[in-house]
Design brief:
The protein has four helices and no strands. By secondary structure, it is mainly α. This is 7574_t:CDS:1.
Length: 47
């Protein structure tokens, strides 16, 4: 039974969605930065 649980966990970890690899850059910045910092970056990038 425990070996089944381990293989299930491994399958989940191998899934890119589970790892969060296919987030957009916008999602990345929203998670990483406060809204104040995000606005500063947007001003820089959207000049």
């Amino acid at each position: 039974m425990s070996s089944n649980n381990n293989s299930n966990k491994r399958a989940q970890l191998a899934d890119p969605d589970q790892l969060g690899l296919n987030i957009t850059l916008d999602d990345y910045f929203q998670k990483l930065l406060s809204s104040k910092q995000k606005k500063k970056l947007e001003k820089l990038f959207l000049k």
